[in-house]
Input
Amino acid sequence: MGISQVAHAELAVADLDEAIGFHTDVLGMRELGRADGAVRLSVGIDGGCDLVLTAGGTGVRRFALRVDDVADLDRYAKRLAEAGVATETRTDEHPGVVQALRFQAPSGHAMELAVLSTGPQYVHPAKAPHRGGIRALDFDHITVQAQDPKPLVDFLVELLDFQVSDIFAPAPGVIGAAWCRASTLHHDIAIISTPEAGKSLHHYALGMESFDHLKLAADELGRHGVPIEVGPGRHGVGGNVYTYFWAAGNRYELSAEMPRVRRNDPVVWDDFPKAFSPWGLQPPESFGHAS
Output
């Protein structure tokens, strides 16, 4: 019962046709359909909607989290209403979405809780369709930007039953970033502080099978002239392996080896280089930019 994982996200792109080509040809996503100026895409094996692309600007317009059933939606709707958060119930969402509850987080992000009708019991790499491109396993997590991460962290924990796995605190009592989980995986949503108003997304992450899969993905990006921003490498926070790149005005992460976390107090980091990578690899200045 409750929130189990991320469901999908809607990203804005400047050139919709160019972005569709990249996501299908290079990332290996499958187009599910188009309606009202939005293009719905699926990645992996479950056949559900993982990404929605809309024209105009960059960044995340909304993102959704999966819940088990309508009873969960009712329970969270009541809890949000008691906290003074307005909600909207929708039944005309994307393919595979039975019902969704939409609301706004303190950071200004539009969020949804969604009951899905599709999906296998678990992701099995051998059952992934043999399409071209990078062929990620699934939508893995999302990292958003907020001028002050704390209100969003408190909102996730107090109203949506999230736990905090790690915190980056550049000074005592200051949250520079937080990695939050609804499942047992290290993070489903991460929040990074930004001094820039109007920036909503740090990266949209796709789950990969292994470090070797990251190597093959890097070759695929290279064949299409897409430069890697940083990686492959291993994070200090969480310990997952990563590769980052930009596409259609937004940053993407390819992530593998995401660990599972026991219930406990969060780990607090005050050293950014160690938090980013124990291997000594550090990101370029561009990594501080968002969309």
